[in-house]
TrEMBL record:
InterPro entries hit by this protein: ScpB_csome_segregation (IPR005234), WH-like_DNA-bd_sf (IPR036388), WH_DNA-bd_sf (IPR036390)
NCBIfam families, alphabetized: SMC-Scp complex subunit ScpB
Record HAMAP family: ScpB
Taxonomy of the source species: Eukaryota, Sar, Stramenopiles, Oomycota, Peronosporomycetes
Pfam families, A to Z: SMC_ScpB
Keyword Metal-binding belongs to the record: no
Keywords: Cell cycle, Cell division, Chromosome partition, Cytoplasm
Gene Ontology biological process terms in this record: cell division; chromosome separation
Species assigned in the record: Phytophthora kernoviae 00238/432
Keyword presence, Transport: no
Protein's recorded name: Segregation and condensation protein B
Length: 360
C-alpha cells in the first residue's frame, strides 16, 4: 500500500494494475498452500499433473521471461532509433503541379479521313522544302551509365524513395541491371567521400545524409516528430513488431500493464496501424507495423530484426521471484506434513465415531 500512497495523485490505471498484480500473487500463493493435484494416469491430457515438481509460480516465471525478452528488444530498438536519427532524408514533396497533363485516350477522336490526308500532305510539303543535311554524332555512352544518370535524377525528385522494381519500369530495363547499377553507385558514393549516401530502407532506395554530419542538419531541420520514444512505447512497439497482428489485450498480457497510451502514441507517429479485427468477442483491433516503422529504425524489411531468442534472459529469475514472495511475508508450508496431520485427524474422528456407535 505504500506504493499507492507514494503517488502524487489518484491514478486509476496504476491502482488497477497494482490490484491485478496483487491478485495474481495471491492466486499463486493460494495454489502453493493447497495439496498437489492428484495423479491421473489414464488421460494424456492430464500428464502434467503427474509432475512432482509442479509449481504454480511457473506461469508467472514464464510471463516474466517473455517480458524480459521484449524489454531487451526494446533496448535494441532504442539503439537503432538513435543511429537512424543521425541520418536525414529529404521530405516528400507534392509533384502533381509539375506532372504533364494526361493525354486524351484517343488523340484522333472527331477527325475524318480527309483531315488525316490533308495533314499528311502538309507534312510532305514541309519535307520537300528542307535542304539542310545534318549528320548526327552518336555519343559513346553505355546503357548502365545512362541508367545511373537517370537514377541519380530520380533520387532528387523529392519522393520518399523508389523501389528497384519502380526504377526498372521507369528506365525500361531489367531489375538485375538496375540493382547492379545501384550497388555500384553506393560503392562510388562511399569511395568518393560524398556528403550523401544511398540508403535501402523499407524496400525502397533513397538519398540520405551521413551520420557524422547529423549535428549540422539538426540545427537546420530539427523536427519534434523525431524525438525519442518512451520506454513503454518501445516495449509496446517491440511486441507488435514480433507478434503482429496482435490486439491491445494481448500486448497488455505480456507487459502486465495498461498500454493504451503507448499504442495511441505509436499510431499518431505512424509506426503502427490497424490491420484488421480479431475473430473474438467484441472484434478487437489488430495492430501491425507500418512502412514508417522500417524507415524510423533504418530497416530494409522485418527480416532485418534480430532473432528474439537473442534477448531471452532467465538468469536469477527464480531467485527474484522467491524474493518477491518473501517481501509479501509469504511463508512456505510443508504440504506433506500438513497432509499427514490431516490424515491423523481423520482417523481419530473415525475411531471416535465408532466408539460413539458402540456406546449407543
Amino acid at each position: 500500500m505504500a506504493y499507492l500512497h507514494s503517488m502524487q495523485e489518484l491514478e486509476l490505471d496504476i491502482t488497477s494494475e497494482f490490484l491485478v498484480m496483487a491478485a495474481t500473487l495471491l492466486s499463486i500463493k493460494s495454489k502453493l498452500l493447497l495439496p498437489k493435484p492428484p495423479v491421473i494416469e489414464d488421460f494424456e491430457d492430464y500428464a502434467y499433473m503427474e509432475d512432482e515438481d509442479y509449481d504454480p509460480r511457473a506461469e508467472l516465471i514464464a510471463r516474466l521471461i517473455e517480458y524480459r525478452k521484449y524489454k531487451g528488444i526494446a533496448r535494441h530498438l532504442h539503439e537503432r532509433e538513435w543511429e537512424r536519427s543521425l541520418i536525414f532524408s529529404k521530405e516528400p514533396e507534392d509533384l502533381r503541379p509539375y506532372m504533364p497533363v494526361e493525354a486524351q485516350s484517343n488523340p484522333v477522336e472527331g477527325l475524318h479521313t480527309s483531315d488525316l490526308i490533308a495533314a499528311f500532305q502538309k507534312a510532305l510539303r514541309k519535307a520537300e522544302k528542307r535542304t539542310t543535311v545534318t549528320r548526327i554524332q552518336r555519343d559513346e555512352i553505355s546503357v548502365k551509365d545512362r541508367i545511373r544518370d537517370v537514377i541519380g535524377l530520380l533520387f532528387l525528385s523529392g519522393e520518399e524513395g523508389l523501389s528497384i522494381k519502380q526504377i526498372a519500369e521507369i528506365v525500361d530495363q531489367r531489375t538485375e541491371l538496375v540493382s547492379d547499377a545501384i550497388e555500384e553507385m553506393i560503392a562510388e558514393f562511399a569511395n568518393q567521400g560524398r556528403g550523401v549516401q544511398i540508403l535501402k530502407l523499407a524496400g525502397v532506395v533513397q538519398l540520405g545524409t551521413l551520420p557524422e554530419h547529423a549535428a549540422y542538419f539538426e540545427k537546420l531541420a530539427y523536427s519534434p516528430a523525431r524525438t525519442s520514444l518512451s520506454q513503454a512505447a518501445l516495449e509496446t512497439l517491440a511486441i507488435v513488431a514480433y507478434r503482429q497482428p496482435i490486439t491491445r489485450v494481448e500486448i497488455e498480457e505480456i507487459r502486465g500493464v495498461k498500454s493504451e497510451r503507448a499504442i495511441h502514441t505509436l499510431v499518431n507517429k505512424d509506426l503502427i496501424l490497424e490491420v484488421g479485427r480479431a475473430e473474438a468477442i467484441g472484434r478487437p483491433i489488430l495492430y501491425g507495423t507500418t512502412k514508417s516503422f522500417l524507415d524510423y529504425f533504418g530497416l530494409a524489411s522485418l527480416k532485418d530484426l534480430p532473432e528474439p531468442g537473442l534477448f531471452e534472459d532467465s538468469e536469477n529469475l527464480e531467485e527474484e521471484t522467491q524474493l518477491l514472495f518473501e517481501k509479501l511475508d509469504v511463508q512456505h508450508v510443508d504440504l506433506d506434513l500438513d497432509n499427514s496431520s490431516l490424515e491423523d485427524d481423520a482417523n481419530t474422528i473415525d475411531i471416535t465415531n465408532e466408539d460413539d456407535l458402540m456406546d449407543s
